[in-house]
Amino acid sequence: MGKGCITVTKYFLFLFNLLFFIFGALIMGFGLWVLFDNQSFIAVLQESSDTVKVASYILIGVGSLSMAMGFFGCIGAIYEIRCLLGLYFTCLLLILIAQVTAGVLIYFQRDRLKYEMSNIIKGMIINYTGENRTTEHTWDYIQRTMKCCGWTGPGNWSENNLIKNSTLNLYSCSCRDPNVPGSEVKEVGLCEHMSTNLPVHDTGCITSVEKWLLDNCGVILGICVGVAVIELLGMILSMCLCKSVVQEDYTKVPKY
């Protein structure tokens, strides 16, 4: 490989690793958001299941590792250090294999994940009191913003312990449809209605969540493919540079 090609490869690899460092920071930031967020659908799942917390720690770990790899990749590319370039290639290969494995597992376990999510939400609705500011208030926020009621429908709220044991016509305040005449609109807690014809939204939140996932499926898939392409590019560039460094070292050895 010519010296000009080596220089171009070296700086392309440096640029790639800089991007990899930035991607790692974004992944770690997303993991921290999942771990500490209390104003979205993630907070509801996190409070009820350790799976989301474990996933957030994994994201933080992967992001931190990606940042470290990006840093050492930059050093290895600029100073042409073969051991760092080889280590960098190996780590990229392992990460790519782990990502493909995770994607395959999620795809084939999607029904189980959907079932687990349904159980988490239904369990939260059954034990809802309106006093938990993390999980329950977040679920109220979801119902208000998505204009839905319950997980599969308003009937989920009939299983709530307070509603089931009350003689009053109670319903979730965040389910309230403002277009239907009724009592005062409240944001959280349980509200009372004079008749059994409750002024709530008819659709369950599972429909809104699935619609959101379908609308953003292209973006999510594009990000995953983009990350995989960047990783493959980094592997190719690191091996090309590592091979050229080896060739240059051999030319410097005296021949007898």
Automatic annotation (TrEMBL):
Q: Which InterPro entries match?
A: Tetraspanin/Peripherin, Tetraspanin_animals, Tetraspanin_CS, Tetraspanin_EC2_sf
Q: Where in the cell is it found?
A: Membrane
Topology in membrane = Multi-pass membrane protein
Broad class of where this protein is predominantly found: membrane
Record's keyword annotation contains Transmembrane helix = yes
Superkingdom to which the source organism belongs: Eukaryota
State the CDD domains in the record.
CD37_CD82_like_LEL
Pfam families in UniProt: Tetraspanin
Q: One GO cellular component from the entry?
A: plasma membrane
Q: What residue intervals traverse the membrane?
A: 12-36, 56-79, 86-108, 219-242
Keywords linked to the UniProt accession = Membrane, Transmembrane, Transmembrane helix
Task: Give the UniProt family note.
Answer: Belongs to the tetraspanin (TM4SF) family.
- This protein is called Tetraspanin
Question: Which organism's genome codes for this protein?
Answer: Xyrichtys novacula (Pearly razorfish)
